[in-house]
């Protein structure tokens, strides 16, 4: 959940709801200021809705009443279960027994400046028979680490990583981070090692003191590196030292573009990608956190029909395109025009992870891609040396158009960490050696 104004958040008592006997209860209710779609600050009551009963519930809603210290009602609100980005779930969403889901209630005070002393939340829902437990899909070589909405993964070394749950649009300092050791097989809560560097002084130095622009700046530090990257209020991408000094401007003239994500490659190299709504063409560029551009400007490059991928050095980019009637994955040199068809395929949406281009110790390039299939999604591999494409394994991807997946290869190229947000979110580790050979 977003917590970028946590200093003025109030942890408040919560009251039992009318349907508590049936099993619906609320936990950890907090009043938090959030930004609406117009950039205005709005108060929300946020927390978790828990089903402690034996029935499932759909048509869920929550009503809040606000009280002052004298016990007088000073405001109210209506809300619904939401995802990590506070987007309301559809009415047919069913909260199963033993499950919980975040909720958000937009609040309205009867008088400006009224002091909230207490909030009572009353959940409502229609009881329905619980769904049978989903059959666990046995996917050899694929292990689930968590079922949280995972929005970021950073490999620490070949056998350990850190991952974050939260809303992908929010600052990394608001996410809930955990460390995971493959040899232990367990995750534990942690703090991001660079979070303490994001100080008020840094934000003043890079002119991101406004909470709205800071939260949409995509400010990130290069994994394992020193410098950081962010976008300004005019969408100009800039890199800087940890204290905000020695800034390097990358590409300007992006004020009318919407940055959707940054994919870290190796040694401070990264790929940034832009699009408006789901299904629109994707623009992109590669650069280094030291301020070196590796690709042509995004407005000059051939647009992609998918979130693109890149080689770990950022010098080659893989896009989805249709050229001369052939739709599939194409390779281009980052700084030059011209496309090479790798293989034809039905392309996924821009909520799928971009393709990976990995080179083994023998110098053989392999492209890994997640493709839609009749049963969900499929991991495929294309060997650039043999020009053969192999289906490797089904993938645990069930994505709505407003949900996303992203992935990161381990430093030794032996594994891929697949992170997914949304109702079917989670983190999975893919052991490539346990799958069919890609030759």
Report on this structure.
With 439 residues, the protein is mostly beta strands. 3% of the residues lie in helices and 45% in strands. It has 2 helices and 30 strands. The longest helix is centred in the middle third of the chain and has 6 residues, at 200-205. The two termini are 43 Å apart.
Q: What is the overall pLDDT average?
A: 92
User: Uncertain regions: pLDDT < 50 for 5+ in a row?
Assistant: 1-21
**Amino- and carboxy-terminal Cα gap:** 43 Å
Helix content: under 10%
Proportion in β-strands: 35-45%
What radius of gyration results from the CA coordinates? Answer: 23 Å
Major β-sheet, in short? 7 strands, antiparallel
Q: In one word, what is the shape?
A: globular
**Tally of extended strands?**
30
Topology of this protein?
Blueprint: E1 10-11, E2 24-35, E3 41-51, E4 56-67, E5 73-81, E6 100-109, E7 118-128, E8 142-146, E9 150-157, E10 160-165, E11 176-181, E12 186-190, H1 200-205, H2 211-215, E13 220-221, E14 228-231, E15 237-240, E16 248-249, E17 259-264, E18 269-274, E19 283-288, E20 309-310, E21 316-323, E22 326-333, E23 340-344, E24 356-359, E25 365-373, E26 376-383, E27 388-395, E28 405-409, E29 415-420, E30 426-431
